[in-house]
């Protein structure tokens, strides 16, 4: 069955209205400019996540950090990295409930506050136990923050910009990684514990900014409507999407589509729970897409580069502290540039196409990487030196790997998960995504250092096979969601009948509302003419 698409010829859909507002017209719209500046406050939530992996990579290269924590081995490194994900698992059960009950905005702030507490303890750590506890607290705050932020982004953004906004959000993971990498590169020359305490402290930068600018942040209009606060929602949509013009048809149409989506979802699922994911074919497919995205985003071999680049570089002869921190810094800059480029192009190429190109490229790179790593290790075993050309080849594959990962998996993983979900499952779906990411991360962070240390190049074969499996799953399971409004996207997996009903009800509500507005305006005009006479 062909995917549901909005009828752009029908005058009563958001797709039709927004379809005519293409190009760069938004740059002259002060409402959308103000909105996008506010959305930037949400986008930096991804900073703390990206900072974490790059920071831990950098700290492992620092002699002062190694001495402070008694030169942790493979299993200890696994625990130090994985405990952050364990902290996420502790708070995760209350994320969806809190976002739906109290609103997205307060959950964002609570998460930022907890994260700052954890970062402060991490920077002040006097022993391994304190460092582990601090990273657990960071995880508890982080998951609240990164659950609320993309929901606010998607539900506040201008319809045509929803996907790219969340794609940029996830791409800014690399901003955090970039800052951590270059800060660590700059502090490795410090000969005391501030070499690692300064990078540890700066992980809280995004949360400090969010709390400092809290007075500028609005609540989600979709959440407001779900709580029957329609007037507040309409004012927000009017202010930011229509530049303050309440007569703009887009305001009425957006309100109608949101109301319709909530109405249909309420009729279909009076008592929504996590079991709702297994109560229809569309929701079952949604569940498995989220499961796939969560695990694939962590199990595509990227865990080696994100948390254990030091081990990879050691295996090919790049052991100098300055060299490792510089490579880490350059790699994060490279990744951020490409992820932002493809985040901007996602509407042009489509989500599914980018996922396929990204996964196929990762598979090809990993096969070559495995061959080069194996040849380098075998050459080293024969002459004790190894081949410099093979080492440079592996390093090139690391950079090429991050290029392909930046095409699809970096910008799209959060965007895609939220786009396929209806409002009543959106918060729960994002919690499931974060759960799968955390579970995959815990396994990753324990297994990768042990696998690389003990199995060496043979360990990479595991990812060769797994990436081939990923490519098959993406091809058969993933659907295209580009260029649809949020409510139109939410029905893409529920069948043609539900889609037609959605458009029909939305059009009916919008037509009635627009008719009322037109009639009211005519009465005002008539009164003005009478008074003039």
From TrEMBL:
Annotated Major facilitator superfamily (MFS) profile domain residues: 38-482
GO MF entries: carbohydrate:proton symporter activity
Keywords: Membrane, Transmembrane, Transmembrane helix, Transport
Organism domain of life: Eukaryota
One Pfam match: Sugar_tr
Keyword match Ribonucleoprotein: no
Main location: membrane
TM spans (from-to): 107-125, 131-154, 166-188, 194-217, 287-309, 329-346, 353-372, 392-418, 430-447, 459-478
Location(s), subcellular: Membrane
GO CC annotations on file: membrane
InterPro entries noted in UniProt: MFS_dom, MFS_sugar_transport-like, MFS_Sugar_Transporters, MFS_trans_sf, Sugar/inositol_transpt
Membrane topology field: Multi-pass membrane protein
Similarity remark: Belongs to the major facilitator superfamily. Sugar transporter (TC 2.A.1.1) family.
PANTHER family in UniProt: MAJOR FACILITATOR SUPERFAMILY (MFS) PROFILE DOMAIN-CONTAINING PROTEIN, PLASTIDIC GLUCOSE TRANSPORTER 4
Name recorded for this polypeptide: Major facilitator superfamily (MFS) profile domain-containing protein
């Amino acid at each position: 069955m062909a995917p549901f698409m909005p009828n752009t010829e029908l005058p009563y859909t958001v797709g039709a209205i927004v379809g005519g507002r293409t190009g760069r017209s938004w740059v002259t719209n002060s409402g959308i400019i103000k909105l996008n500046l506010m959305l930037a406050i949400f986008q930096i939530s991804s900073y703390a996540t990206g900072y974490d992996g790059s920071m831990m990579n950098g700290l492992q290269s620092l002699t002062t950090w190694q001495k402070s924590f008694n030169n942790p081995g493979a299993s200890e490194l696994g625990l130090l990295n994985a405990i952050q994900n364990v902290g996420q698992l502790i708070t995760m059960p209350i994320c969806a409930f809190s976002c739906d009950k109290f609103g997205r905005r307060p959950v964002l702030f609570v998460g930022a506050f907890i994260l700052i507490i954890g970062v402060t303890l991490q920077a002040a750590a006097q022993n391994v136990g304190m460092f582990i506890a601090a990273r657990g607290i960071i995880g508890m705050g982080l998951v609240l923050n990164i659950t609320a932020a993309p929901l606010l982004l998607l539900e506040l953004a201008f319809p045509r910009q929803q996907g790219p906004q969340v794609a940029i959000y996830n791409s800014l993971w690399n901003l955090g990684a970039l800052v951590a990498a270059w800060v660590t590169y700059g502090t490795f020359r410090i000969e005391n514990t501030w070499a690692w305490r300064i990078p540890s402290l700066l992980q809280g930068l995004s949360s400090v900014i969010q709390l400092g600018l809290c007075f500028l942040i609005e609540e989600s209009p979709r959440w407001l409507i779900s709580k029957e606060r329609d007037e507040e929602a309409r004012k927000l949509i009017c202010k930011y999407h229509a530049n303050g013009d309440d007569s703009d048809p887009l305001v009425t149409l957006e309100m109608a589509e949101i109301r319709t989506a909530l109405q249909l979802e309420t009729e279909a699922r009076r008592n929504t729970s996590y079991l709702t994911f297994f109560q229809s074919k569309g929701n079952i497919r949604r569940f498995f897409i989220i499961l796939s995205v969560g695990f694939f985003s962590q199990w595509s071999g990227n865990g080696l580069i994100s948390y254990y680049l030091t081990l990879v570089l050691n295996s090919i002869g790049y052991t100098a502290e300055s060299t490792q921190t510089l490579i880490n810094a350059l790699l994060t800059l490279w990744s951020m540039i490409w992820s932002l480029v493809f985040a901007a192009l996602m509407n042009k190429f489509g989500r599914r196409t980018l996922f396929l190109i990204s996964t196929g490229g990762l598979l090809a790179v990993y096969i070559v990487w495995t061959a080069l790593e194996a040849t380098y290790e075998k050459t080293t075993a024969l002459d004790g030196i190894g081949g410099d050309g093979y080492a440079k080849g592996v390093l090139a594959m690391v950079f090429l790997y991050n290029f392909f990962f930046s095409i699809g998996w970096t910008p799209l993983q959060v965007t895609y998960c939220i786009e396929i979900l209806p409002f009543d499952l959106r918060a729960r779906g994002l919690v499931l995504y974060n759960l799968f990411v955390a579970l995959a991360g815990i396994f990753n962070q324990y297994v990768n250092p042990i696998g690389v240390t003990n199995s060496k190049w043979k360990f990479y074969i595991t990812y060769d096979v797994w990436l081939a499996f990923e490519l098959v799953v993406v091809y058969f399971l993933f659907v295209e969601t580009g260029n649809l409004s949020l409510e139109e996207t939410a029905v893409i997996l529920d069948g043609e009948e539900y889609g037609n009903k959605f458009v029909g009800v939305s059009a009916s509500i919008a037509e009635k509302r627009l008719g009322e507005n037109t009639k009211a305006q005519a009465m005002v005009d008539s009164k003005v003419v009478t008074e003039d006479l």
